[in-house]
Design a protein that fits this description.
Length: 287
């Protein structure tokens, strides 16, 4: 699948402000099943400087810094991507022990995966999540791959999808009790459910390209990835109940959801109570 993605973010302020250094994660991840043929990043006002690097989670990031005051900030990213993973299950798990739950990684691998096995986002009071995970473990006969598919599919039916363009993911118990949530809310339910049974899981932000629908409004999308020995990081999208194939384009992944924000910055001013407004527009064209 070949797509052109245009992602524009505009901030407007009701008085002149000074922009603090801003981190951008708007360059798609390229790997064995995805190729970035072209990628551009345009920022207005022009930054005084722009650095490119890999962040702590291995995502491509840019830091922009500014000198002059401004009443707006516009960030336009354009990328052309080619994806190849038509079959999301084209792999083998090389450690037989990883096929049985609770999953126990070998010592060296467990050390490397520790941040994705548990982090401060975990809410210890989670009876609803505990119940669902236990039910799906029983139904899957403690088989890791069966559990992942069943759990992912169940969440897509039990949590109605809603659009919420801003804000952090809700706590899993809140999402389950409301029985509705944005994609990032459902992703966190899946991630923390996987961690309960020893599966390393992390949060992913990016785009879901809809080949089956034309003329739809696109938003940023979120899903999860789990680590399987011999297969690496494999995506699951509990918003739609399926393993991730070629319709997903990831921008960034991290054990902590706040570390994958496409734009992470702030501003300062001597005038108190500055009001800001953000507008995001995503357009995806199939090539």
């Amino acid at each position: 699948m070949r797509v052109r993605i245009e992602h524009q973010t505009v901030y407007k302020y009701d008085h002149s402000v000074y922009l603090n250094p801003t981190i951008l994660r708007l360059t798609p991840r390229a790997d064995s099943c995805r190729l970035c043929n072209n990628c551009s990043l345009n920022i207005t006002p022009t930054p005084s400087g722009l650095s490119s690097y890999y962040d702590a989670c291995g995502n491509i990031a840019h830091t922009a810094w500014f000198t002059d005051a401004t009443m707006s900030l516009e960030i336009a990213a354009v990328m052309e991507m080619e994806t190849f993973r038509e079959n999301p299950f084209n792999y083998i798990v090389t450690d037989p022990g990883a096929l049985v739950l609770p999953l126990k990684y070998k010592t060296g691998l467990k050390y490397l995966l520790q941040p994705s096995l548990g982090c401060p986002e975990v809410n210890k009071n989670r009876p609803g999540l505990d119940r669902i995970v236990k039910e799906e473990m029983t139904a899957s006969d403690n088989n890791t791959l069966e559990f992942l598919s069943r759990f992912c599919n169940r969440l897509s039916f039990e949590v109605a999808h809603e659009i919420r363009e801003t804000g952090e993911p809700l706590a899993p118990e809140d999402t389950l009790s409301r029985r509705k949530g944005a994609c990032r809310d459902v992703a966190m339910v899946f991630i923390e459910g996987c961690r309960l049974v020893g599966i390393a899981a992390r949060f992913v932000s990016g785009y879901k390209c809809r080949k089956d629908k034309a003329d739809i409004k696109y938003y940023m999308h979120a899903w999860a990835e789990v680590f399987l020995p011999g297969a690496g990081w494999r995506g699951y999208d509990p918003s739609i109940g399926l393993a991730v194939a070629d319709e997903h384009v990831p921008l960034a992944a991290s054990p902590i959801s706040s570390e994958v924000s496409p734009v992470d910055g702030s501003f300062r001013s001597d005038i108190p109570g500055i009001h800001s407004e953000m507008n995001v527009n995503v357009n995806i064209t199939f090539l």
